[in-house]
Design a protein that fits this description.
Blueprint lengths: L4 H34 L3 E17 L2 E16 L6 H6 L9 H28 L13 E2 L20 E4 L2 E2 L3 H10 L3 E7 L4 E6 L3 H9 L1 E2 L6 E4 L4 H4 L7 E5 L2 E2 L3 H7 L8 E7 L2 E7 L17 E3 L8 H28 L10 H14 L1 H19 L7 H14 L5 H30 L3
Antiparallel strand pairs: 1-2, 3-8, 4-5, 4-6, 6-7, 9-14, 10-11, 10-12, 12-13
């Protein structure tokens, strides 16, 4: 079913506010719990900013839901460490032992990482787990290859790549990161069967991105959203169905489905479909006159979907740990690419792009949406732990230095490092927002 553009925009904004609030609430809740554990005075815990819509008090702490749903805060007293603070709040933040303050500072990061672990574990135990796409190229689109990128047309389509220029890769994400970060020029690919292939990797970032776009990963032919009034809907096909054969021809990957599916059928097409582990044969009728197909499956009228796995409890826990580890590697590697200049700042996304991606994941299915929330939570944890003053990682670093030298840092040094850190953060936030605007304008 198609949705008006305005509806997409409204839903994207609402999802952005919801997801942002949940992630920040969890982050601040981590600080709150740690501060309470450390015996620090906490006077306020707010979800949102501005006038309070609802509030209650437990002990010295006022909990409130505020009008403006843009994050929240926890107010721990004694942060400045002044003599007035010492008189009013002798157990305040600045007067606690260094290790207690470090725990409070890092608790927000830990809470976001824990949320990601919990979401992935729940997905794994409720049939929402996904397996990483293998580092295998099912097809190379010759017309899309950048100039000078030789050797790629000889790629094996039936064996995984395990090394790129001496760098180990285990899935498509790591394979893509390797192509973006290794040195340009002639490089060796190593396959799982021990074979090697010499290829040329372009030097320029834009050419590397074009190279990636010319390589098709081994995506399974699984249906995502089924278009209203489409041949797929009329045949009774559902989201999550995997097409395993077309007219008797096996289709283990989406590329092979493309080759087996007739482009202009003159009679119903026989599909062998796997649904919830049960095989069935479906006959898809020809599209009605005037039907405008949308999605990767062409005239069938369906978008490309995701294949989900069932896990027991131990499998779900292992899946959660593996997903957090895998995404942590990809996020940190992406950061390295930005710092080294291998990928330009134009690739940094801001709130508009996050809203768009949230809306797209929501419309796909609930496991994809919650997996995206987990990924964002992990992103927030890692970004917040960067050693930049004003971020939790910067505060943690300053406290670590204080612990080593065994005396508080000079207030002037702390103030100027905070100003410098805030400048860096505001710059990147502004740049990300500008990138979003340029993408909206098609630039």
């Amino acid at each position: 079913m198609e949705h008006p553009k305005g509806e997409h925009m409204i839903l994207a904004v609402l999802l952005l506010l919801l997801v942002t609030d949940v992630l920040i609430l969890v982050h601040e809740l981590g600080h709150l719990i740690a501060a309470k554990w450390a015996g620090m005075p906490v006077t306020s815990f707010s979800v949102g900013f501005g006038p309070a819509l609802f509030h209650f008090r437990v002990g010295e702490t006022r909990y409130q839901l505020a009008l403006i749903p843009l994050g929240g805060f926890v107010r721990i007293m004694g942060m400045q460490g002044t003599e007035e603070d010492r008189r009013l709040w002798p157990n305040g933040f600045a007067f606690q032992k260094v290790h207690r303050r470090m725990i409070v500072v890092v608790a927000g990061v830990a809470a976001n990482a824990a949320l990601a672990l919990i979401i992935y574990a729940v997905l794994g135990s409720t049939g929402g787990a996904t397996s990483p796409t293998p580092a295998r190229v099912s097809a190379v689109f010759e017309e899309e290859l950048p100039a000078g990128a030789t050797g790629w047309l000889s790629m094996r389509s039936d064996v995984d790549v395990v090394q790129v220029a001496g760098r180990d890769v285990s899935d498509w994400g790591e394979f893509a990161m390797a192509l973006l970060s290794v040195d340009g020029g002639p490089q060796a690919l190593v396959f799982a069967n021990g074979e090697t292939l010499q290829v040329v990797i372009p030097d320029l970032e834009g050419d590397r991105i074009q190279l990636l776009a010319s390589l098709l990963p081994p995506l399974p032919p699984v249906l995502g959203t089924v278009q209203h009034g489409s041949p797929a809907e009329r045949a009774g096909l559902l989201t999550g169905d995997r097409i395993v054969a077309v007219e008797g021809t096996p289709t283990p990957t989406f590329f092979e489905w493309l080759g087996a599916m007739p482009s202009s059928p003159t009679s119903p097409v026989s599909l062998r479909v796997l649904r919830n582990g049960v095989g069935m044969t479906v006959y898809v009728p020809q599209p009605d006159p005037g039907f405008a197909p949308a999605g990767s499956f062409g005239w069938l009228g369906a978008h490309l979907g995701t294949e989900f796995l069932d896990q027991d409890v131990s499998g779900a826990i292992a899946y959660s740990a593996a997903e957090v580890g895998r995404h942590t590697r990809l996020i940190t590697e992406s950061g390295k690419l930005l710092v080294t200049g291998a990928v330009g700042l134009r690739e940094v996304s801001g709130p508009v792009e996050i809203a768009r991606m949230s809306e797209r994941a929501y419309r796909m299915n609930w496991p994809q949406f919650f997996a995206f929330v987990a990924f964002l939570s992990l992103n927030l944890a890692i970004l917040n732990f960067l050693p930049i003053p004003v971020l939790d990682g910067g505060h943690f670093l300053l406290l670590a230095i204080e612990g080593v030298i065994r005396r508080p840092l000079h207030p002037t040094l702390v103030r100027y490092t905070s100003i410098a850190g805030a400048t860096v953060v505001v710059f990147f936030m502004s740049f990300a927002f500008l990138n979003d605007i340029l993408k909206l304008l098609g630039r």
